[in-house]
Amino acid sequence: MIEADLLTMAYPPLIVFAAALLVLVLPRILGFAIGALSLAAVVAIAAFAPDGAHLTGTFLGFSDIRPFYIDEFTRMMGIALGFLGTFAVIYAYSSEATKTMAAFALAYVASALGAAFAGDWLVLVFMWEIMALTSTVLVWHYGGDAVRAGYRYALAHGIGGSLVLFAVIAHYAQVGTFVFGEGVDYPNALLAGGFAEGLPMLLAILGIGVNVAFVGFHTWLPDTYPRPHFAASVFLAAFTTKTSAYVLLRAVPEGNIYLAYMGGLMAVYGVVFALLQHDMRALLSYHIQAQLGYMVAGIGIGTTIGAAGAMGHLFNNVLYKSLLFMAVGVVIYRTRENDLYKLGGLWREMPLTAIAFFIGALSITAVPGFSGFISKGMVLDAADPGYYGGSEYQALYWLLFIGAIGTFLSFIKLGFYVFFHGESDRQVRDAKPGQITAMLSVGGACVVLGLPAVGWPVFTDLLPLIDGTEFLGPGGEGQTLTPYSTGHLMDAAILIAISAVGFKLIRKPLSKIDYSDPALIVNPVSYHVGRGTMRATTGTYAAVDNAVVGFVKRCYWVGNNPVLAVDAAARRLPMVEAEERRPADGGRPSTIHLRTSIGTTVLLLTIVLTVVLWLLIS
């Protein structure tokens, strides 16, 4: 009991944030070691803290706040983020990341863990905003093109975070509590949580949709992730989007068919534009959106296998997506080249990096024997009317299947042109020892958790809503997971065959295409709209200011020269004669000064409006 209480009192985000501060002041190797150990401690806390354990306190004047809560969902998030974070720190150390960058990365990880472990909406939205801030600083730290991309990233996440904040406020106003699962009655919900229906739910979906890269809200993702230090991309690939997918499940516990189909569109949209990329990290960034599509689809379906599959795919994506960014990062580090078409034949020069890449590629493409095969198969089964899906999800199943083909084509393309196409004209060294350790450790998990008969039951035992290999079907009946059934293996074989033939057919024309995502028009349009809005606002302010000041000056002059004012008005009338008079002020113009800054004006208006509002209320 004492040990369990101690684990409950050990607040993971605080441990990691303390490590971030120590990184700045300790010798580099010691600081990075403490950073990695802090994240390994998070894995231990998540694995062994008892279900239902939580910390309570008062925050911002609200009581019964739960900054740390353990259930099967937060446990899985803690293990996934802590495990990957441990090896991401090791990778960053070996990739010559600075102490400052490591401190920013650890602070970012701490905030993501804070959002993942939160037991109420108030703490979650607070950590959500810190996560947006720390990830932006991590992007900015690299300088160059990352700075402007970081501003766009900050704007996107600022808008999304504001929507989530408004959702939390509206939720509290409606139900009177921030605690997950209290005040809202969802009879078919698979987990505690859920926003109140109506405006809170709508705002939450839109705000979270920015972070999980809904189609149309996603432009920050391929715009930002290819630009910072390649080790920073490893952290970015794992934390924001995956934490947000978990929060989406917590926010919409009963699912939603429109949400499910948004996931299908994300899967197809992401792979189409991944196929058209030359930049390796841009290709991987679009595949973050595509893989998030499977998670969003599973959440939207709302059944046990759909939600469990979404969480399983989240767990696997943390591993294999970061592994792919690690492998591509090593290629960029050694060759100083981002364009995959300018590489080739590197498997002879970098065999260990090639092995790590292909482990990640086989996992993300859901080849049998790798972890992605289990989780992606669960989401496909949740949508397939031939397994557990309703007839209304037939089209969704085909969207997800098309997305799976596109994923195969993308990683055949990336692996072929980087490692096999032609002979390498470069003599480069393979990954450094720390990079190899990180890649093969994460890759080993991808292999072990997908092994037939041995590994995959261990993986499904980690999943929420699954009891070993048993789960409740859509009708409430007991079902058993059988990922390596003949039908599933046949589906995988068909997928591989279609993809292999398809790549043969499209390889040459595809190599001549380098299209940007048409949705990236959002960036220049947003710039010009913002610039135009700013000019219109300041121009309107100037016009009103000139009119008001001119009016007051005229009134001031009239007050000093009432007779002249009457004469001037009279002269404007027909048939009236007025004699010339000398101004009382000697002809000097009014010298009244009513100028002030916009900020002071806003302050004065705020004070006036506050007084008016107070008078009206009282």
Describe what is shown at a glance.
It is found in: Cell membrane. The chain is mostly helical.
* Backbone CA Rg: 30 Å
Query: What value does the average pLDDT take?
Result: 88
Q: How are the strands of the largest sheet arranged?
A: 1-2
> Which H/E pattern describes the elements?
HHHEEHHHHHHHHHHHHHHHHEEHHHH
Structural class: mainly alpha
| Number of E-state strands | 4
Low-confidence stretches: none
What would you call the shape?
A: globular
User: Helical region count?
Assistant: 23
Q: Which sheet architecture does the biggest sheet show?
A: 2 strands, antiparallel
Distance between the first and last residues' Cα: 54 Å
As for the number of domains, it is 3
Secondary structure: elements and pairs:
Elements: H1 2-9, H2 12-25, H3 28-48, E1 54-59, E2 62-69, H4 72-94, H5 99-117, H6 121-140, H7 145-175, H8 199-211, H9 220-224, H10 230-238, H11 240-251, H12 257-275, H13 280-301, H14 304-335, H15 351-364, H16 371-383, H17 394-420, H18 433-448, H19 455-462, E3 470-472, E4 478-480, H20 486-511, H21 522-560, H22 562-571, H23 598-617
Helix pairs in contact: 2-3, 2-5, 3-4, 4-5, 4-10, 4-14, 4-18, 5-6, 5-11, 6-7, 7-8, 8-11, 10-14, 11-13, 11-14, 12-13, 12-17, 13-14, 13-16, 13-17, 14-15, 14-16, 14-18, 15-17, 15-18, 17-20, 21-22
